[in-house]
Amino acid sequence: MFNKLVLAAAVAIPLGMLGLSGSAMAGYSPTSHTPLARMPLRNTGAMSCADARQLLREDGYRNVVARECDARTYLFGATRGGRHVVLRVNSRNGHVRPV
Fold first, then answer.
1. Which of the residues 9, 14, 86, 91 could staple to 99 if both were Cys, CB 3.0 to 4.6 A apart?
2. Neighbour-count burial of 12, counting CB atoms closer than 10 A to its CB (0-12 exposed, 13-18 middle, 19+ buried)
3. Spans of all domains in the chain
4. CA 99 distance to own-chain centroid
5. pLDDT tens, 73-84?
């Protein structure tokens, strides 16, 4: 009985750790103190202008219009809460900041 329990634990614990490792660390960033729910984790190169536009729409902006999409930061005009805003999106990490 004891041998079966040890064997089951020896198999289940590493599998459980593998299953949690990606999801448990998905939002962790040791250098950031802002919530990571709004910041997509990008490991590849720059996001496309369409991806940046979709990111803004998911963040609650409407009538998102691309003004400049050929630099490292993309420039957008959008509406949120009835007010017009101009935003810059960093294509490397997805950070959004108002202009």
1. 86
2. exposed
3. 2-98
4. 21
5. 999 999 999 999
User: Could you tell me which residues are beta bridge partners of residue 83?
Assistant: 80
**pLDDT, position 65:** 97
Question: With the C-alpha atoms ordered 47, 34, 96, 57, is the resulting torsion angle positive or negative?
Answer: positive
Instruction: Calculate the alpha carbon distances from 92 to 31, 69, 83 in Å.
Output: 16, 13, 27
Q: Report the amino acid identity of residue 51.
A: D
Q: What is the pTM of this model?
A: 0.55
Cα-flanking dihedrals φ and ψ of residue 5, to 5°?
-65, -45
Q: Please indicate whether residue 30 or residue 61 has the higher confidence score (pLDDT).
A: 61
pLDDT value at 91 more than 60: yes
Bridge partners (DSSP) listed for residue 97? 88
